[in-house]
Amino acid sequence: MTTILKLNEYSIQIPQQQNQAWPKSRIALDEFVDGTEIIQILEQYLADFKGILSRFVETHDAIRIRRDDDPAWRQKVLEVRDLLTDALGPNNYSRQITEYYNEGISNFTGSPSHKSVEDIIGVLGAVVTRLRRNPGLAQRTQGSAGPPATKNIFVVHGRDEAKWRELKDILRERFGLNPIILQEQPDAGCPTLIEKFEYYAEMCSYAVAIFTPDDEVTDANGEAYLQARPNVIYELGWFCGKLGRGRVMLLLKEETSVFSDFGGIIQKRFRSNVSEKIEEIRKDLEAAGVLSQ
Question: Which of 100, 179, 186, 274 satisfies CB 3.0 to 4.6 Å to 119 for a cystine?
Fold first, then answer.
């Protein structure tokens, strides 16, 4: 029997490595996935959530989740959210589940509220009903996996706020795209920054990195040079491994050094403003199929 679902150990994907695993809370659809079996898995989660709801404890001043149900609830909500994203791509159900989850723990105790569990059960029930009507919505093959068909463009940036805001405005106002700036996004129930990055990065079909001279570095010969922040370099590498070099663009402000490893990536140098390269940016987005010609 073909294995269709796998829970893998957490690791980070970088270039020159094979595809690696999701965080422990992530269920990866590694091979052929049958819509009917996805429904069965979601129905099991739905039953688990209803069981947790039924075990809430009523006190003199509140209704609280049972202590040993709390960690299981948090884990299972993340699993369901990511399973839906893997099966359906970017979708409103995952977004609603994230919103209800965050609302539910936004109280002085920090524990999930009775209403948030009810709301998530309602969303999950709606998903199951829809998939029963059309199981093919959740049917994918490993060979069909690729960049999501979306207008979400991840903006990788360092300390120069003026430059990433300029790029954000160009992408949104001139090209009609949806720039994703990580610091502007809600945490989406992600406990760490790397998980938040991966959560939003998975929703993007293209990435634009702005390298600005943020850090001064001294080489082995004692010569100083300027380079981008380490997180910017890491994120650019992540997208090269995930989307391929053809779906990553590097904008370099003059005086910023770049590693020779990034020589195969589309690079555009600007002197003062990102807008200097606006037509070149447009042409490359069109060539990648992100913009219509």
Answer: 100
Question: If you ran DSSP here, which 8-state letter would residue 91 be given?
Answer: -
Which residue reads 């723990």 in tokens?
Answer: 105
**How many whole angstroms from its chain centre is CA 46?**
24
Co-location of 129 and 175 in the same domain: no
d(C-alpha 281, C-alpha 284), whole Å = 5
Residue 103 has which token pair? 């609302």
Q: Which of 224, 225, 276 is nearest to 251 (CA)?
A: 276
- Here the CATH number for the domain that contains residue 157 is 3.40.50.11530
Average pLDDT over residues 134-154: 63
Split into its structural domains, the chain has a count of 2
Residues whose CB falls within 8 Å of the CB of residue 121, separated by 6 or more in sequence, listed in order: 46, 49, 50, 53
Distance CA 81, CA 190 (A): 11
Which position has the token pair 């893998």?
A: 8
Residue 169 CB partners (closer than 8 Å, separation 6+): none
Any domain includes 143: no
pLDDT in tens, 100-130: 888 888 877 788 999 999 999 999 999 999 8
The confidence score (pLDDT) of residue 171 equals 92
pTM above 0.70? no
Amino acid 255: pLDDT: 65
Q: How many CB atoms lie within 10 A of CB 38?
A: 26
Q: Which domain holds residue 210?
A: 148-287
In terms of pLDDT, which residue wins out, 242 or 171? Answer: 171
E-strand stretches of 233-291 = 248-253, 266-270
Q: Which of 267, 283, 28 is nearest to 140 (CA)?
A: 28
Q: Which of 85, 117, 138 is the last residue of a domain?
A: 138
Q: Is the CB of residue 81 less than 8 Å from the CB of residue 186?
A: no
